[in-house]
What does this fold into?
Amino acid sequence: MSRAADIVFALALVGLFGYAQPWIVAQAGALTLNAYDLAEWASLVPAQRAMTPPLLTTMLLRMQLAILCALLGAIAAGPGRKWLAAAALVLLAVAQLPPAEFLLDINNLNYRQQFGFAAISLVAGGALLLAPRRASRLLATALATIGLMTSALGFAEAIALFRGFRLEAAPGAGLWLLCFSYAVVIAMGLRALWQGRRTWLRTRTKNAGA
It folds into this structure.
């Protein structure tokens, strides 16, 4: 595994840590929530079910775990890292599963969304874990770009919900950690792509002059 892939793998773990840290810091301590709890809180707001698509804020926040799972799968290489990534994927997929009541209330939109993201995390992460490494850098950059945009949008929607209830809140460290990890992955990917293009142009110019 290259040094760059090691760094991206570590950044994905930093992103997971950021996901579990407070995203919204409210004056009321009980409403200081990490991304997972914030998604659950948003799902309880009746207006969210009337949106198109329904539970949009919750979806954007929950999506981050699926993106991080895919990122772990895309960048993992080497037997040791692959086993670590596989264990993380299984644990994260299980953590996203809805409660057992889902079996008795299968039409519950919130539970179905939880189950869907658990399945996506496991399948997408597992598929990328087994995929060839050739496009891993490009995939990691694309995933991080999607993650950065959707996490920022999810937070914006969540903070708007808070303000709709006249609750004072500020962004927490967890949001910044996740966005930082995404931004560094994007920067590394763009730098690598630029260097690859320069090498290609240099080789082409050399061949043309030969």
In short: The helical segments are 3-20, 35-43, 46-49, 56-75, 79-96, 109-130, 136-164, 173-209.
